[in-house]
Amino acid sequence: MMTCRDVCEKAQDYSDKKLSRLSRVRIWLHVLMCNNCNNFVRQTKQANLLIHQSFGKTSDSKVSPELMAAFHNKKK
Q1: Are the C-beta atoms of residues 31 and 43 closer than 8 Å to each other?
Q2: I want to staple 2 with a disulfide (CB 3.0 to 4.6 A). Which of 6, 32, 35, 65 is the partner?
Q3: How many CA atoms, within 13 angstroms, populate the side-chain half-sphere of residue 60?
């Protein structure tokens, strides 16, 4: 049986469907019995959905070339 800590550590991969079938079933069983982990996994899935939706949309706002240059320099 998975612990709450195990579920929290694997929640992102569970949400992204990157775990084996056995791991997904173990998490699913734990989430059925643990309200806190159920909420955590649900929130992780909702956050992922919002992130994926936001990357699919274009923004009406324009970013100044200076700000973009500073961003690119900071990444290096």
Answers
A1: no
A2: 6
A3: 0
The SS3 assignment for 23 reads helix
What does the block give as tokens for 49?
């959905």
Q: Which residues contact 38 (CB under 8 A, 6 or more apart)?
A: 31, 32
Distance CA 42, CA 52 (A): 15
Q: What is the pLDDT of residues 14-69, one digit of tens each?
A: 988 899 999 999 999 999 999 999 999 999 999 988 887 877 655 555 666 777 77
At residue 34, what are phi and psi to the nearest 5 degrees?
-120, 110
CATH number of the domain located at residue range(s) 4-75 in this protein: 1.10.10
